[in-house]
Design a protein that fits this description.
single chain, 168 residues, alpha+beta, 4 helices
Amino acid sequence: MGCQHWAVHTNILPPTSSEWQNRIRWFFPIIGHMGICTSTGVIRDFAGPYFVSEDNMAFGKPAKFWKLDPAQVYASGPNAWDVAVHDASEEYKHRMHNLCCDNCHSHVALALNLMRYNNSTNWNMVTLCFFCLIYGKYVSVGAFVKTWLPFVLLLGIILTVSLIFNLR
């Protein structure tokens, strides 16, 4: 899976990327909201029941992105990427949002399946989370800190309280 042409330390996201907003999950920073960009860089995300937003992600600006390689699209047609993102978005405009099963990750997975990204139609929430964790890049140092600092502080508090009560 090619991850090329990274945009590092910027809030400007590259086209054809998958965005990740894990700031909303302070207890589990690897879990978060996800969207997918068109070839022009417009982010589409399944933001709630029957609603797919365009360039206005449900929980604010992305903290992390995974740059996808348009050369890995195996669907036919000159605009296969944009057609797949559009078709997935249209499909999800008719779906109820379900936190555990049919959510923003499923929307991105459908787009990748429709375009046959990396010649695969087996994209799902788990594979997307895994690849975003492995290949994802933070948009800035600040985004990294905002993602992990609350989690680290929470662990520190739990550890401190645990040690205080166990040392008595």
